[in-house]
User: Fold this.
Amino acid sequence: MSKIQFTEMKIGPRLANKFLRSNSEDNRNLSTPPVKKYARDMTMNRWDLTAEPIMVTQCGTLINGQHRLQAVVLSGKTVNFTLATVPDSSTFRVLDQGRARKNSDILGTSNTVLVPLNMFLRGVLNITFPTPHDLEIASQTEIGATLYEIDSLVKPHGKLWRNSGVRAACAAAIASGVIGKADAFEAYRTISRKPIAEWPPLFVALYQYVSETPSKQVLSHQRCFANEYFCRAYYCFANVNTSKTKLRISAKFMSELREKVTATVRNAMPSKALA
Assistant:
């Protein structure tokens, strides 16, 4: 009985294309997001050799690794891989049977922190497909620390106040200096734990808006500036200590929001590590 042979080798764009030309017809369709994520890591020299091999049959048919190989082509980089040569394509039937690990599994960090950070990486730094490495760096910033504190100190209650856009808005408002952390957390605890009669008026207005608007019409995009929860909640936190009682999301406010939060996030998150 033939055995599987393992070899460590460097694979550049030319060799990757050679493997891809012999891709098995049974392989799953190529998905763009993972290819772009892998290519970013390769471009930034963050790709590490792992035990998961590129797999080909003794006849040369590629049965595992098409996304990584396509990323090599896209990045133009030469990368170290483990190559496994198997007797035939019967191995294909047992590949990728486990549940794919999520970013929260890889980093050991709650999605209540990672999803808001993802909104900043996408919306401010224009990283379309943030990698676990991107999120790890972002989680170590002041904004990341505030999101951890929201989890441990505020412990939001209620569907609206647990929303990632609201969490992101609180962290961004604090980081950009429009409200102090103590005041922001006090307001957040109030809306999470006390009767609506005791809430700051702007948060009452936000709650009423979300309650009265069909859920599909409240934009919940993964990019912060396109997320209505984020923009409206930021307005609430920024103006919680004023006499304002109505949500007025004007073009001027959105322009100021974009400018202030963009500057804050870019200053907080190391551009060289995330570029």
Summary: Residues 5-94 form one domain. The first strand starts at residue 5 and ends at 11. The chain has 13 helices and four strands. Residues 180 and 190 are 16 Å apart (CA to CA).
